[in-house]
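User: Predict the complex.
Assistant: Input components as received:
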Amino acid sequence: MTNHLAEKIRFEVPSLEYKEHTFGNGLRLVMSRQGNIPMVAVNTTFHIGSKDEEEHMTGLAHLFEHLMFEGSPNIPKGKFDEILNQNGGESNAYTSWDSTSYFVALPANHLEVGLWLDSDRIAGFGISKESLEIQKDVVLEEKLLYVDNSPYGTVEEESSRRLFKNSGYKWPIIGNMDDLRKVTLDDIENFFERYYKPNNAVISIVGDIDYDKTLSLVEKYYGAIKPGKDFERRKFYEENIMTEIREDIYDNIQLEGKFIFYRLPEMGTADYYAMNILNGILSEGDSSRFYQELEYKNELVIESDTNLYGMEQTSLFCISAIAMKGKSIEEIETRIDSILEDIKNGNIDENEITKVKNKVETYYNSRRQSIISLADKFSFFKTFYNDCEKINFEIIDYLQVAKNDIIESANKYLNKNQRVVLNYFPKKQHNGE
Amino acid sequence: MENNKINVIEQAQTLDRSVPPGSGKPRDVNFPKFFETRSDNGITVLVIEDKRLPLITSRFVFKSGSYMDYFAGENKYGLASMTSELLTKGTSGRSATKIAEETDFLGATISSGCDYDATYVSSYSLKKYFDNIFEIVTDVILDPKFEEEEISRLREQRLNSLLSMTDDGDYLSEKVFKKSVYENNPYAFPVEGNKASIKNLNREDITEFYRRIFNPENLIVAFVGDITPEEAMNKINEKFSGWKNNPELETKPLIPAHKEKTKVYLTEKKGAVQSSIKTGHIGISRGNPDFIPVNVMNTMLGGYFTSRINKNLREVNGYTYGARSVFYSNKFSGDFSVMTEVKNNITADTVKEILKEINDIRNDLVSEDELQNVKNYISGSFPLQLETPNAIASKVINLKLYDLEEDYYNTYIQRVNRLSMGEIRDAAVKYLHPEKLVISIAGNVKEIEDDMKVFGEVEIVKDIF
């Protein structure tokens, strides 16, 4: 830790203060006092995501994100947000492969109302058949909006089912719509009984709070909720991809697109951080390799990007490029491959690494400005690492990445035979249409 | 905290969940103080000091945006936007790549762009690198080169982006909506330009536009973060004191007219499985004295999750993932619109429900509870808009850009809370016109055309770009 501290001082990142508590029913609480504005954010994260679903009953984790606002034993349908708004608050939620997070943000003097609302939906099951049917329709529209009616909208589902063969990462987070249509209220209640329990949750409260009062309020509203039975999380098992998988896909688009995916180790590993720095070198800012090579010098693309998606049991490295009209996506792929080969051959300037680390430092200083995102971060670190101290020290994991780590990771993971390549083409025009 | 379990059992017996808890005393919220002055050559300088984090943002806001495109010559749309983007693409002393490399190396960002009413350049960096980044920002503002090579690169990029955006139903319905509502007004034309106008722009247009718009008297600079007013003024004097004003591009407020009656515009989006609906009409300018009542009324109609329109279309009918309404206000005019995306076969039903909600809020007084709810929501969540120094800066810049009263944000919550049910209905009657709508829909024209005829004359939009 002493080394870490020395490193941290060099980079001048101030520590965030917080306190933790674990209740008898297994619920874990994180509190952080940030008195900037008289507001408080409450984030409740359940360690259940789309990859934990059963095959043939996919989409439940995300459907819950909708249903949890639809009524609980003491709060009738439609009242959750209404009561919250009456108290000057707002809410939202999101679902990932690995967890589902809910938050409310409201004036600090109404914290107890927020906890009452949030806890009632875990204390008992209160979702009606009517709510279920309406929210299925809403999710079907959500899927049409973001997938079917959206250009390149099918990339997630087309890549996932080729990247994974066994694990729950092979279906999209929103699920398969055929599964969703069949879901019954019994399925919903079983899922609730299994996963929506205090021992599977982390609650993070950030804002203008008093630690002792907040602890006793959380105890009052959540402390008596019975824990659920322990369950076994499915083990991740996937064979390595040994031969490149390529697919041509026809979509309602004007410009051709190239999407390349590589599997990586799960988030938190040393290789994961090394790949994060590489991700910055490749696509962060207009001086990055992708911007310079693909967009600026050769004018091949209207946009290009690389992204690293951290996951609990694996991770993904994704490359995307949308071609300028008339440019060949095969030429784009060749250019991308030569950028990657260059990295694998060790051609990285130390300045490129420092640059990305400087960006990380700026980011670490910016992150404490929003109570909603801080609460989310605390829940994230507690859920996946059981270690909130990472909020202050994860920066070290990034900063200690050395040039060799990047080169080794690139050689280990960014190989042609281990990847999935999707080529997106405009749908052919049929005569008479 | 060792004997949690004992506490838990006691709590279980005493807690009555059916009773909503009370609330403590609210803490007062005041709009933060800021420093304001004017330089000798007319630059408005604002400082929002906040020492809690070692970060500084500088925001340069020129009080002219795409509205000016209209006055710059025949078919020059996209000019303000292209000019602002080209600023960071090279100066006499730095190439585009050098600007990017220097900025990125400092872990900083410089961005530039525009909307209808303003053109901006911003920097964001750690305090320790501020001198360096300010030097670069100053360079791109005072000495941009606008090289032909950079112009043609950006032109090609823009033409391809415009092409790609036609894949997006919401983009299509939005563009047709603006064009149909504003007709020949400057606000009718897209900030990003269109295919013909982008091809029509040349280097002379850009340098002339730059010369006429980028002037000290036309500039607001806001410094935000770990910087004192004295440090800020020193920076301005050091870099900008010799900067002279040029004659401003001549412009005038042009006020668009309402449609005589409702009309439907349908645009084909290839392979659409949903209709992107955008319907509305002329709205209000930012300086309209009824701005606050109109926006509170709109919040109830479609401005937040529990609004009437979202409740109806999403929570009761399950027609859509989300629906909202907005009064979008610019300096000289604005528009009102309701937006949503629904399956092809319920497009007409959805428009009917939107019309019903617009009519209801005009015809019937809202209930006291509903009004109180929205007041609580707006005043309760207002501090979230003051959470970061940059969010505060946006508000302070708005005060200057739109000539709002000095105490606008200090009295905002009081003015919201004073509104009566009658004033809400008055705002609805005066500013909502369900008989003069533009109904713009991008989707599968064949499937929806017949159903839409009940609302008015239907025009199939062939070529909008």
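Chain A is about 45% helix and 20% strand.
Let me know if you want any component modeled separately.
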